[in-house]
Structure prediction request, 298 residues.
Amino acid sequence: MNSKQVVLITGSSTGFGRRFAETLARKGHTVFATMRDPAGRNAKNASEIRTLAEKDSLPIHVLELDVTDDASVQRAVDAVVAQAGRIDVAINNAGYYLSGLEEAVTIEQAQRLMDTNFFGPVRVNRAVLPHMRRQRSGVLIHISSGAGRVVIPSGGFYCASKFALEALAEAYSYELAAQGIEAVILEPGQYETPVFGNTVRAADEARTNTYGAAKEIPVKVNGALSSTAGNAQDVADAVLRIIETPAGEKELRYFVGPQDFGLNEINALSKRVQSSVLEAFGLAADTKFLKGKAVGSV
Ligand SMILES: NC(=O)c1ccc[n+]([C@@H]2O[C@H](COP(=O)([O-])OP(=O)(O)OC[C@H]3O[C@@H](n4cnc5c(N)ncnc54)[C@H](OP(=O)(O)O)[C@@H]3O)[C@@H](O)[C@H]2O)c1
Prediction:
C-alpha cells in the first residue's frame, strides 16, 4: 500500500470525524470528508472544511454520505473511486448517543439508532470491500466506544449498537485477513465533542416516571460523561497512528481514553479466549491477524 492513503470518513461535519479529516490531510493523506446534507443543514460545516483545505492546500474533498441510505453510501464510494482511483481506508465514525432508561426507549428510536450506529457501517463496508478486495489491501476502521465493551445504565441501546459493531468488525477481521484487508476497532473513552449536545433522549416519559429514584440514573451518567471528557485530538492522533502502522501489523482493538476502566484488560482476556475459540473451530490458520500480538493501546 502506498504510504499516502485514500481515506473515506463518515460523519465528518463535527467532532472526531472533522478532526480525523484535518489530522490525516495534514500528513498528506487524501481525505474524503463525508457528511449528510453538505448543501443544507451542514452547509456551514462543509464550507469551513473546504475553506481550510483551500487555505492550507490540504487534500480534503467534501462529499455527501448519509449512512442510513444505501444509495447515498454507494454514490459516495463510487465518487471516491472515480476521483482517486482507489480507496485504502474507510473510517466508520458517524454515530450518536441515546440516553434514557431502556424501557423508555421506543422501538422507533431503537431502530433509528441501530440504523446509524450499526447498519451504517454494514452499508459502508459492503460498498468499499469490492474495491479493497480488487486492490488486495485496505483498512476498515470502526469507531466503537469504551461502551462497546462495558455497559452504562441508561446507555443500553447505545452500548448494544457498539457491541454489535464490535462483533461485526471482529468477524470481518478474521474473514478478511487472508485477502490483505484489516478490520480495526477503536474504542474511545469520553471525549469533548458535540456528541453530548446531539444526544437523543428516551421518548416514553410515562415509563420513565414509574422508576422512582432510578429516574436520576441518566442524569448522573450524562453529568459524569461530560465532566470527565478528554481532548478529542487524542483520538485523531490515535487514528493517524493506526493508519500509519504497516499492513499486517495493526491490532484488532485499540482503546484510547482519559480514564482507564480496565478496557485493555477486557480486550486482552477476550483475545486469549477468542484464540482458543478459533483453535477449537480449526480456524486459527485462517485468522492470522489475531496471532502473537499484544492488545493495542494508542
Ligand atoms: N465523544 C465521545 O466521547 C465518544 C466516545 C466514544 C465513541 N464516540 C463515537 O464517536 C463517533 C463520532 O462522535 P463524536 O463524538 O465526534 O460526536 P459528533 O460531533 O456528534 O459527531 C457525530 C457525527 O455523526 C454524524 N451522523 C449522525 N447520523 C448520521 C448519518 N445518518 N449519516 C452520516 N453522518 C451521520 C453527525 O452528522 P450530522 O452533523 O449530520 O448530525 C456527526 O458528524 C460516534 O460514532 C460516537 O458514538 C464518541
Notes: Residues 10-11, 13-17, 35-36, 42, 66-68, 93-96, 116, 143, 145, 188, 190-191, 193-195, 198, 229 surround NAP (CB under 6 Å). The CA atoms of residues 7 and 89 lie 5 Å apart.
